[in-house]
Amino acid sequence: MTTSIFYGYDIYLESGKRKRESGFGTKELAQGAAARIKLSEKNRKFDLVDYRKFPTCAELFQKRIENTSERGEQLRSKRVLQTILDLLGAKGLVDLRLNELTTAHINLYTEKRQKEKVKDETINRDLRVVRAALNQAKTFFSDLENFTPPKIRFLKVKKTRRERIVQSFEAKAILFYLFKAQLPGESEKLFLSRRRAGLLFLLSAVTGARPGELVALKESDILEDLKVLRITGKKTRFKTAKTVRYFPLIETVRQVLTEAVAIKADGFIFTNNGTLTIHIMPILKRLARLLVSFTGARLSAA
Known about the structure:
Helices cover 47% and strands 8% of the residues. By secondary structure, the chain is mainly alpha-helical. The radius of gyration is 25 Å and the shape is elongated.
């Protein structure tokens, strides 16, 4: 049996942090990698780095948006990152390069949102978009192999668990409301949206799929020849490594999909554009008084 021998390095950076990596084929390669890291550290310390190699914040943010495939996350990225660019522009930092971006600059966004009375949880969610964009700099720009993003200060919030298991009587109440006959004064469009929301809730409870996965379903995802429903994962936000699951077309699922297709709005089975539309969202918000959510229904299916 052949035994493979790999080499690595174990060094301390200027910041005091320890950096280790293995998997080099020869000792010389490992030593060369460590030497390049130390050289890069000295270049930054004595301002010897060619700063022209650093992209502007706008260039990085645009890369982030372009490589985000999930529509909701892409819209959030556009809103958050453009707001930061606007704040920097107001300070006269229109073409601020990535190496010049500091924690204080990012804090401008936090301060703005706090003045707008936005919840700390929402601000932290937005800041995660910024952190993701900065962490992707090494992926988008090869010259930034040793780039260290500025620290992002998240707000302290009390940890709570929003979702819970939907009880059987709650599920019955929800379905009773969503599948009621057309109400006096209710438009045909709103009535069909309410019924589609009911079908969506029922399918979420049966399959355990996320609402974002179900609203993206098309007729082509119903594979009658294989007797399965194809569900594409939405938790993976970028264009690679999409997770695809197949759920058997049991009788309940088949009945839900048959009616949903019969009253579908457009190209997608449940919505016009594959996202939770403005017609379905108000219906779901009315269910909040029952203290339930699609997440709770999904967990109930587990």
